[in-house]
């Protein structure tokens, strides 16, 4: 189902999604709705150059995680950040192909299908992504990840905001 949704979304040239919009939406969502017990606020930067991406991944993820794990070890606690960063990097590798390439498709068939649908069918089978509000979509996506992937309750947002300010 998700693959079909992705294909239909990207088929419409009129509703092009740019990486800068995606970055901004995700960053603003996590600024306004921080993760519980976050070490720092997530900052999404999608880059198409693999060398630049590797450099910033090392500088902003791996080195801080190593330093924090060193601190935890010195304080007698179990290191945990490199394990977390490794999981994050695995997820990033999955997305890398899609963020570092672009495609152009012919959308004539989708446009033809939309033009032949009745107004009632357009309401029932709404796949015209020109009507999609990408900022709202991305915010809902991030909040869904927070709740269903990270198992964080949305009722904990005030405490998370206070924790991040510290």
From TrEMBL:
Origin: domain of life:
Eukaryota
* One GO molecular-function entry: protein kinase inhibitor activity
All residue ranges annotated as the Fatty acyl-CoA reductase C-terminal domain in the record: 61-152
Query: What UniProt keywords apply to this chain's record, in alphabetical order?
Result: NADP, Oxidoreductase, Protein kinase inhibitor, Signal
Note the InterPro entries from the entry.
Answer: FAR (IPR026055), FAR_C (IPR033640)
Q: For this UniProt entry, which residues form the secretion signal?
A: 1-15
- Oxidoreductase recorded as keyword: yes
Name of the protein in its database record: Cyclin-dependent kinase inhibitor far1
């Amino acid at each position: 189902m998700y693959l079909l949704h992705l294909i239909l979304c990207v088929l419409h040239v009129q509703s092009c999604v740019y990486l800068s919009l995606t970055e901004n939406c995700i960053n603003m969502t996590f600024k306004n709705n921080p993760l519980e017990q976050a070490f720092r606020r997530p900052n999404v930067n999608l880059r198409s150059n693999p060398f630049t991406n590797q450099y910033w991944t090392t500088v902003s993820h791996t080195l801080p995680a190593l330093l924090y794990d060193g601190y935890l070890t010195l304080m007698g606690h179990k290191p945990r950040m490199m394990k977390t960063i490794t999981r994050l990097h695995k997820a990033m590798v999955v997305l890398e192909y899609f963020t570092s390439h672009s495609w152009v498709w012919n959308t004539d068939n989708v446009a033809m299908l939309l033009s032949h649908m009745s107004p009632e069918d357009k309401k029932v089978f709404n796949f015209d992504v020109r009507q999609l509000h990408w900022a709202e979509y991305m915010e809902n996506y991030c909040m869904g990840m927070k709740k269903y992937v990270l198992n964080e309750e949305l009722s904990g947002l005030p405490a998370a905001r206070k924790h991040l300010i510290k």
